[in-house]
Amino acid sequence: MEKVFVVKRVAEKLWAAEGSMDQAIEQTSTLMGGIVEARRDLGVSHIVVDPAVGKVADAMAALAEARRALIEAHHALYEVQLRIGVRRATADGGVWSVDADHEPADAGNSKVARAS
To answer: Which of 34, 44, 69, 85 has its Cα between 20 and 30 A from that of 111?
Structure first.
């Protein structure tokens, strides 16, 4: 199988995972808002919902850390793409590349980028 197809398949899975992570962060923040709104609507003390709010905040922090790790994986996979020689070619003769917001900021400064 051609490298470009394998790389593109992995890239699509990575982008899907990043999208899922963003969706999870969005849904978790909506949950937090829902808890605060419900507390207010029910006239319940802050003390009653504080343990739940703290756990949701912990989940948000964990999601943010997981998102950061996915972004680091994205940068590492871009370097792998360069190292295995898949840069811009596609099977149909067009250009396949990761768009600007998917490339590491220092891609032009890396040894791998200079060697290609």
So the answer is: 69
Q: Are 79 and 112 in contact (CB under 8 A)?
A: yes
The neighbour count for residue 56, using CB atoms within 10 Å, is: 19
Q: How far apart are CA 38 and CA 45, in angstroms?
A: 11
CB 2 within 8 A of CB 91: yes
**Amino acid code (one letter) for 72:** E
| Angstrom distance (rounded) from CA 99 to CA 8 | 13
Backbone angles phi, psi at 90, to 5 degrees: -125, 165
Query: What letter does residue 110 receive in the DSSP assignment?
Result: S
Strand partners, 95: 89
Cα angle 106, 111, 116; round to 5: 100
Count CB atoms within 10 A of the CB of residue 8: 17
Give the Cα separation of 54 and 52 in Å (integer).
Answer: 5
pLDDT digits (tens, 9 = 90+) for 28-37: 999 999 999 9
pTM of the model: 0.69
